[in-house]
Design brief:
By secondary structure, the protein is of the alpha/beta class. The chain is 51% helix and 17% strand. Helix 2 packs parallel to helix 4 (90-109) and helix 7 (160-168) crosses helix 8.
Length: 248
């Protein structure tokens, strides 16, 4: 049985999450299968609770969310698909997964603080929209984005169809989504989907260094920039409703 982290303190450790504060940076490391966390309501609420805590701690200027090597990858996706297909409550699990992604994106969108996403390993496109909702994105050298979920005829989730065209344009977004080709970190960086690429060996430390540098920007400037650049919440909500309608 997995241990649920202590939700009363920001700093904690469990099989799923490890959270700590390093000077001005709040760090959430996801260690468990994210598909499982998205469909396990208590675990999901602990994860979201940590994000809200970070937003409310004055000393935390930047929230850094990093994943373990395989937490967002193809193996976990295949495992989730197999267990869901055999489950009597398959539809409920898929709805929970969808709702978790929507809730996460709204949490990112509503943040007044800088949120940094650090990703490594293979990342299925189910989570790419959620990653793009962060303010700053870091990938390891070996990171690549897989569209296996689309090959399996899973509809585009997590506001990917909303964010992707806004970063790279409609034509490039269509090409990526229709071709199913693996998207390596270097190409994602070239397209502007990733802000920084760091070495695999020193991944977490480099992510923390970058987050600390971003934390030097004054809160007033951060608020102003986010206010000016943030997409309209009504527009995002309308997209998410349209995306949810694809399941029906």
């Amino acid at each position: 049985m997995r241990t649920i982290p202590n939700e009363n303190s920001f700093e904690s450790m469990s099989d799923f999450l490890e959270t700590q504060i390093d000077q001005t940076v709040g760090i959430i490391k996801i260690k468990g299968n994210v598909f499982e966390m998205a469909t396990n309501l208590p675990l999901k609420e602990v994860f979201f609770g940590k994000i809200r805590q970070a937003y409310n701690i004055p000393d935390i200027k930047v929230l850094l969310i990093v994943n373990g090597e395989s937490t967002l990858g193809e193996d976990n996706f295949i495992q989730f698909e197999k267990s869901t297909n055999k489950s009597s409550d398959a539809e409920i699990k898929l709805i929970r997964e969808e709702n978790a992604l929507i809730q996460f994106i709204r949490l990112m969108h509503g943040s007044d603080k800088i949120v940094v996403s650090g990703v490594r390993g293979t990342v299925v496109s189910t989570f790419l929209g959620a990653i793009l909702s962060a303010d700053y994105r870091i990938a390891s050298e070996n990171c690549s984005f897989s569209f296996m979920d689309l090959k399996c005829e899973r509809f585009t989730q997590g506001a990917l169809g909303y964010y992707l065209p806004r970063y790279i344009g409609m034509l490039k977004a269509k090409k990526i989504l229709l071709n199913y080709d693996m998207l390596p970190a270097a190409k994602a960086h070239e397209l502007g989907l990733v802000d920084d690429i760091v070495s695999d060996d020193n991944f977490e430390n480099r992510c923390i260094e970058i987050a600390k540098k971003l934390s030097q920007v004054s809160p007033g400037v951060v608020t102003m920039i986010k206010c000016l650049l943030k997409s309209d919440m009504n527009e995002l909500d309308a997209y998410l409703k349209r995306e949810s309608g694809l399941r029906k």
